[in-house]
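Entry 14: structure prediction run for ABC transporter ATP-binding protein. Input pasted below.
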Amino acid sequence: MTLLVHDVTLTYPDGDTRLTALDAVALEVPAGTLTAVIGPSGSGKSSLLAVAATLVTPDSGRVVVAGRDTAGLSAAEKSALRREKIGIVFQQPNLPASLTAAEQLQVMAHLSGRPARALRRRALELLDAVGLADKADKRPHQLSGGQRQRVNIARALMNDPAVLLVDEPTSALDHERGAAVLDLLVTLTRERSTATVLVTHDRAHLERMDRTATMADGRLAQSPQAAPAP
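Run finished. Output tokens:
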């Protein structure tokens, strides 16, 4: 399954005129691949993520998530789509201080109707996948910044999303921890066949991405697709 953003334009009110945040943007991200979006602050990167996540409705164009066209969906239908098909990794983990690492994940999926024991099993599986099997019962203050970001990533995967949207996951991390988080995202994208979009300022690891797209003044320019790894 893929993420498809087709000819999307988004504007915001700006006094007597409107400011163009996205200008006829097109992006296709196949399952199991990772596209990095780079560009200066204010270029439209966050707006692109918000539209792809169905959090903001564009003025025109289409967003298709895992084969479902989001045009015309009600607010409730978009909420259900995000819950079932879209994982979002925010720049700051924002983990509730009173919850353990496992509970952070379980809370995300409590609306799914699955039994508590099954949710616990799923949470432990994902924490193991991000290298935190031994931290399941630790609270945020007992975790490093890199570990908190790994919990944030695992939380976004709790409902097995088709699309993973990641906003500056390394901005608060040093180079070593940031590199480890990017490595993890590449690995999880391949293993779980997500269509992943990563907004980042970190250019040091772009060669690991399948494709790089550059935002400038609301326009998106894409590099040629990388050759598949041997």
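Notes: The chain has one domain: 3-222. Will compare against the previous run tomorrow.
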